[in-house]
Amino acid sequence: MDEPALIHQAQNGDLNAFNRLVLEYQTQVYNLAYRIMGDEASAADAAQEAFISAYKHIGYYRGGSFKAWLLRIVTNACYDELRRRKRRPATSLDALTVLPEGPDAESEAALVSKEESPEAFVQRREVARAIQNCLDHLPEDMRTVVVLSDVQGMDYAEIAESVGAALGTVKSRLSRARARLRDCLQTVRELLPAAYRLEEESMA
Amino acid sequence: MTPPQDLDRLSAYLDNTLSPADRARLEARLAREPELRAALNDLRVTVRLLRALPTLKPPRSFTLTAAQVEAVRRPRGLQLFPALRLATALATLLFVAVLAADFGGGWLSRGAPAPAPQLQSLAVEATAAPTLAVQQEAALAPPTEAPAGAAAAETEAPASKAAEGSETATPELAIAAPAATVPVDVGGNLTEATPAPAAVETPLEAARAMAAPTETLVAAADALRDRSATETPTAPPSVVFADEDASTPTVLPPLRYAEIGLGALVILLAIAAGLARRAL
Questions:
Q1: Where are the beta strands (DSSP E) in B2-111?
Q2: If residue B8 lies in a helix (H) or strand (E), which one and from where to where?
Q3: Please, are residues B184 and B157 in contact by the beta-carbon 8 Å criterion?
Q4: How far is B48 from chain A (nearest CA, A)?
């Protein structure tokens, strides 16, 4: 994909070129929106909104990381949607995720094998949901930074561009977000295979 | 409880963004402080859990459709419409001015063939530039007392099409209607006898018909009615025009070209303005 050429064509009103950029980034955009919003429907709405806004404003894109430019639009679309939700809190109750509980979750936890890697562990639905629940309880700015960094694997500079903040701000937000998540994830982490935890400790 | 500065350092250490000096200092502390080591391990596990979150498949494609893009472009229509409306108004003024200048050209003797289709464009103008269109009607149209609405409704002539096209312009249409009456009648008779004349290409004659004194139009209408009664129904409208051309063998004067051009321009601008308005 010749990204600069596609961007240039899109800036000249070429919808096909823009849609190729959409196809390239939509998974990342949707996942960022999902981790910020916490539910599928809101994430899809925010992602669609973000792409429409990106198309509308692509004339203002002036070089640099297109991904960072796009993700900034996505985070703004998410914040707008979250603000709308706060004004109408009733609709957000459905979207609230809850920590796993009840016999199903317990029996699932009991099945954790000693050999299970944390990756395989997190793939299980209720664990992913528990982590998402912890993310949902972070302040928005921390949540965005930790998602960009630890879920999406972006570096500090890209994150700073994506959230429109200084590098130092990104670092401290990330550090505080991780500390909060550490506390929130305490229960989940206790379910991790002991071997993995010991391995981690020995690595430190 | 780990102090915030240490958490910042540990976090940066995990991301490998500490300066070599800071890194060395922190590693020395980690070697002798089990609590700090435990805090680092906690953070590392936390980050690893987050990294392991599955990448979700989007529930649908977010590619934009032409319709969504059209909605995005609406603000441009907002600017386009006033510009087109002004252009239509100016072109109409010019058209009227040229027509007025041409008044003395002896067109009275040429009669008034098939003026009805011109109504369509006039009505469209009325929606786009109401005040000017009204002025134009006032300048061109001799007052007649005929029941305009009835005439327009009876014939399926373009007048009714124009009415459909301009739902928002009822007052203008009412003003335009008196002018419409006689030509529609003529057009109606013509269409009875012959296939519908494609007189949109001859806005000049149509406009002249609009400007003609009522008596002339009525006379022309009568003449046409007589003709449609006597002639065979297969006679195409071109025959009528040919007859007329034969009676006026002179070459088209330059003003006529100007009028045709301006008339066409007015029609095109009015349509464009209508489209821009619909896009609002």
A1: none
A2: helix B4-14
A3: yes
A4: 8
Question: Is a pLDDT exceeding 50 seen at residue A142?
Answer: yes
Cα Dmax for chain B: 120
Tell me, what amino acid is at A70?
L
H or E stretch at A202: helix A194-203
Instruction: State the Cα–Cα distance between residues A127 and A185, nearest whole angstrom.
Output: 10
In angstroms, the first-to-last Cα distance of chain A is 41
- Scan residues 88-127 of A and list those with Cβ closer than 8 Å to B: 118-119, 121-123
Site from A18, A25, A126, A150 to mutate, B interface, most B CB atoms within 10 angstroms: A150
CB atoms within 10 A of CB B110: 16
Nearest to A21 by CA among A66, A53, A61, A63: A66
This prediction's pTM: 0.53
A25 part of contact set with chain B, CB < 8 Å? no
- B22, B44, B45: best mutation site toward chain A, by most A Cβ within 10 Å? B45
How many Cα atoms sit within 13 Å of B42 on the Cβ side? Answer: 21
Tell me the Cα Rg of chain A. 19
Residues in chain A: 204
Tell me, what amino acid is at B177? A
Q: pLDDT tens across B27-50, in order?
A: 999 999 999 999 999 899 899 889
The H-assigned helical ranges of chain B are 4-14, 20-32, 34-51, 66-72, 74-101, 118-128, 130-140, 148-154, 158-165, 170-193, 203-211, 214-230, 237-247, 254-278
Complex ipTM: 0.81
Q: Do A178 and B43 touch (CB under 8 A)?
A: yes
Out of A121, A122, A200, the one facing B44 most closely (by C-beta) is: A200
**Are B190 and B237 a contacting pair, CB within 8 Å?**
yes
